[in-house]
Design a protein that fits this description.
207 residues, alpha/beta, 6 strands
Length: 207
């Protein structure tokens, strides 16, 4: 049976209050590098190592790639959900956009788009479905994916409630109360009928 691990990236500079250089450009903090080196001991030898295109996820995959240098790698569109305009990310600290980010979900419209170059809630749910499709289609049997916190919450939301569930605002409330520490991961399986099953959040390896 095909198995996969969905890993949140290590602590980033954004997570500790430093400004983001860009939407995708926040790097790992020193503690984040310690976390991603440690999580390798709790992951299997994979057949495929995947990361999002964002810097903090690509860096988080580096220790696993270093341990298994001959393993295939790929970039999938499992980046963080960033619904706000670029001006909220470029040289801006997370704390400065957090209230606006949370207000986005209160609009409770899955098709709401804040700016021409931003995602809607539906867009990101479609990326979650593409992740599931990629996992089903891959001929690799053990896949490790380095991704992001809100995106992982959407993965769980989609499996539990079918994407929109009780509405976008309900997801906003869910994510505020659902703890998902850096380098926590979800184990999953794809059975021989292409059904996807997910475990709970694994945090045993965290200090």
């Amino acid at each position: 049976m095909k198995q996969f691990w969905l890993v949140r990236h290590g602590e980033s500079e954004s997570n500790i209050g430093l400004p983001d250089p860009s939407r995708e450009g926040s790097k790992l903090s020193p503690r984040g590098w310690e976390q991603v080196r440690a999580v390798v001991d709790h992951l299997p030898e994979p057949d495929l190592i995947v990361s999002s295109p964002f810097v903090r996820a690509r860096e988080s995959a580096e220790p696993l790639r270093a341990r298994f240098p001959d393993v295939a790698t790929a970039t999938w569109q499992v980046q963080e959900f960033c619904p706000l305009a670029d001006s909220y990310y470029t040289n801006v600290a997370m704390e400065s956009r957090l209230a606006t980010f949370r207000d986005f979900f209160d609009i409770d419209d899955p098709e709401h788009r804040c700016d021409v170059n931003t995602e809607t809630f539906t867009d990101c749910i479609q990326r979650v479905n593409t992740l599931f499709d990629n996992l089903r289609a891959s001929n690799m049997q053990q896949i490790v994916v380095f991704t992001h916190g809100t995106f992982l919450r959407m993965v769980l939301w989609q499996k539990m409630l079918g994407g929109l569930g009780n509405g976008v605002a309900a997801f906003g409330r869910f994510q505020k109360t659902f703890s998902l520490p850096n380098t926590a991961f979800i184990r999953g399986q794809v059975d021989n009928r292409n059904n996807i099953f997910l475990s709970g959040i694994v945090t045993d390896h965290l200090n």
